[in-house]
Specification:
The chain has 16 helices and three strands. The chain is mostly helical. Strands 1-2-3 form a three-stranded mixed beta sheet, sandwiched between helices. The longest helix is centred in the middle third of the chain and has 22 residues.
């Protein structure tokens, strides 16, 4: 499915089947591909089939990259077709696991919110904020929905602003403020006979839709290609013409970090890093009918890996290991200011 294809023009069942077939061809990417397939099944109203895919992933023999995300999605889906008790049990398990990825927290909190469990949703968003938001640092882009969701639920609960609400207001860049977007009284405006009130609500809804479109405008990360040391050695041994692209391993690592920081400073969001391997690169080159020595193939390879869900978000979370594989904490490795 192309990112710019309108949802109403998509055969979600067929797209899910295509993604399942693709997962069979690329078992190393099965987790990302089957999650997308399950999402299409949910959109098609085939929720039991989506649950079957989540169960398939959770029972797979290999370790999942993000088991909490799979469980959160399964819980949200189950609740939508009447399996509330099972969904609640899974949500409790996700919260107890304290995942370092914001996505599972957001999914379970929004599921609670959607079923009018506002107090539990507020507690979940707050737990996520305490765990994931670095004190005194700019919140990573992936954590912004945690703050926005918490702000929204607090408005519905009638709670006063706190420091995290103020941070959410600061991060929000749309013309309509978060307080207006999350005003519980907006629902009454939609039923008003007053043209002025309806026009104002349409303006707010357009701003909210703009925020969603901005978040969805780049469905895959802008991914930089990282070759681990042994893979880079193998690559340059097999294709010495690429040595001009990679003068040394150290320069390769530095160039990745510098490029990502430059993109971040220019306002580019959803940045990531993909790891290349020589066998998969050669297979990609063959699929493109292009010799592996062609340097123009490298960014295409990175984009393809990102589209297959292989990207790791950048920068790493606070205290996480550096993306380069050194084993050191990112802040003490490539996250230092003197890169």
């Amino acid at each position: 499915m192309r990112p710019d294809t309108p949802a109403e023009n998509v055969d979600h069942t067929a797209e899910a089947a295509r993604l399942e077939r693709t997962a069979g061809l690329y078992p190393e990417d099965a987790e990302a591909l089957l999650l997308r397939a399950a999402a299409h099944l949910e959109l098609a109203g085939e929720r039991p089939a989506a649950t079957a895919l989540y169960d398939r992933l959770l029972s797979s023999p290999g370790a999942l990259e993000n088991p909490s995300l799979v469980r959160a999605l399964k819980a949200s889906n189950l609740w939508e077709y009447g399996h509330e008790a099972e969904a609640r049990a899974i949500i409790d398990g996700v919260r107890a696991a304290s995942p370092r990825d914001p996505a599972p927290w957001i999914i379970v909190a929004e599921s609670l919110e959607a079923h009018d469990e506002l107090e539990a949703a507020h507690e979940t968003f707050t737990e996520a904020a305490r765990l994931l938001l670095p004190a005194g640092q700019e919140p990573p882009y992936a954590t912004h929905p945690v703050l926005y969701g918490r702000h929204r639920v607090r408005r519905m609960l009638g709670l006063p602003h706190d420091d995290w609400d103020t941070r959410a207001d600061t991060l929000h860049s749309m013309p309509v403020t978060l307080d207006e977007l999350h005003d519980p009284k907006r629902v009454w405006s939609l039923g008003s006979d007053n043209p002025a009130e309806l026009a104002a609500e349409i303006s707010r809804l357009r701003a909210e839709l703009g925020a969603y479109r901005e978040a969805l405008s780049r469905p895959f990360p802008v991914a930089m290609l990282h070759w681990p040391a042994e893979e880079l050695t193998e690559l340059l041994t097999a294709y010495p013409a690429l040595a001009a692209e990679y003068p040394s391993y150290e320069e390769h690592l530095t160039s990745i970090e510098e490029a990502l920081r430059e993109l971040e400073s220019s306002g580019t969001r959803n940045l990531g890093i993909v790891r290349g391997t020589v066998p998969s690169y050669e297979a990609f080159a063959a699929s493109e009918n292009t010799p592996p020595e062609d340097p123009s193939l490298l960014p295409q390879y990175a984009t393809t890996l990102g589209a297959r869900g292989r990207a790791v978000s950048w920068p790493p979370e606070r205290g996480a290991a550096c993306w380069c594989g050194s084993g050191r904490v990112y802040g003490e490795c490539h996250g230092t200011s003197n890169i």
